[in-house]
Amino acid sequence: MPANLENTLVIGISSRALFDLERENSIFENEGLNAYAQYQRENEKRVLEPGTAFPLVEALLKLNDKLGEHMVEVVIMSQNNPQTGLRVMNSIDFYNLAITRAAFSGGESLGPFLSAYSVDLYLSKNLEDVQDAIDHGIAAAQLYAPPGGFNPDADEIRIAFDGDAVLFSEDSEVIFKQQGLDAFLEHEKVFASLPLPEGPFGRVLKTLSRIKSLSDKPLVRIALVTARDRPAHERVILTLRSWGVEVDEAHFLGGLPKNEVLRAFNAHIFFDDQDKHAGPASEHVPSARVPYKTSSELYDKDAPGPDSAH
Ligand SMILES: [Mg+2]
């Protein structure tokens, strides 16, 4: 286990993102901490079912073996106390997941601990915790419920990203929202050769791309799935080029729904800032919404998120 995590992708993940803890969570919410703790103790030996991020985590940890290098580190970041966390650790053993680090904060905010564990990406089902991570400068996303019947590719990890307000900043999208399509297209044409500013997941993409380049074998496949279309595609392609990043696939959908493309790509995970894209996609592939708070006061895009049933 390397102590230097500088070149490693470190993913912090809540126990409820890794395992199905919905029943346990509703006991906590409806009956309180004591009832929850008692239930967890009584069921300590019962293995938890996989949650939304399980296929991604399992595949990323196997990638270390395939690369022969420790490039991905997964840390459990939980507000549980260490006692109730035991069931989670037992389940990690059962599934043979190479997760060694875990933080059980006993109800305290996890935000301050994320940088202590060098977390690059934080995944949770709890919006407050995700926002807390973002407020601490960490890329973070809120997971939807797992899709039914998802069957991940066994050889290749497939990760799909939205462009604006995920890989890239939301500057251009704000122009679209405030001034309309024509103004947006004109703006993107004028600034086509100027790289888009990095968005909340820009660094995650760069790290993944570096890890991917360590092997000649197709171990990681990356797709860009964006509502942009011609001629706004050019600035995106030139931006990725300027970052030294190559994506394997790019889908410029121009208003077509994203969910069918995500189903065809069979993503282990899909990240989008808008519920109208990530929500329908979550019925086919594990999906997460990336809250983008910095200028949320500029326009209202806070449609229902992963907390609302679908
Ligand atoms: Mg977007």
What does this structure look like?
By secondary structure, the protein is an alpha/beta fold. The chain has 2 domains: 135 residues, Rossmann fold (3-Layer(aba) Sandwich), CATH 3.40.50.1000; 142 residues, HAD superfamily/HAD-like (Rossmann fold, 3-Layer(aba) Sandwich). It has 13 helices and 10 strands. The protein has a 10-stranded mixed β-sheet, sandwiched between helices. Helix 2 packs antiparallel against helix 3 and helix 12 crosses helix 13. It is globular, with a radius of gyration of 19 Å. 45% of the residues are buried. About 2% of the residues have low confidence. The site of magnesium ion has 7 residues, from loops.
CATH class of the largest domain: Alpha Beta
Shape: globular
CATH superfamily heading of the largest domain: HAD superfamily/HAD-like
How much helix, percentage-wise, in residues? 25-40%
C-alpha end-to-end distance: 40 Å
Spell out the blueprint of helices and strands.
Layout lengths: L8 E5 L1 H4 L3 H10 L1 H10 L11 H14 L4 E7 L7 H9 L6 E4 L6 H6 L4 E4 L2 H9 L3 E5 L13 E5 L9 H9 L1 H10 L11 H11 L7 E7 L6 H11 L5 E4 L6 H7 L3 E4 L2 H7 L5 E3 L21
Parallel strand pairs: 1-2, 1-4, 2-3, 4-5, 6-7, 6-9, 7-8, 9-10
Antiparallel strand pairs: 5-10
Helix pairs in contact: 2-3, 8-9, 12-13
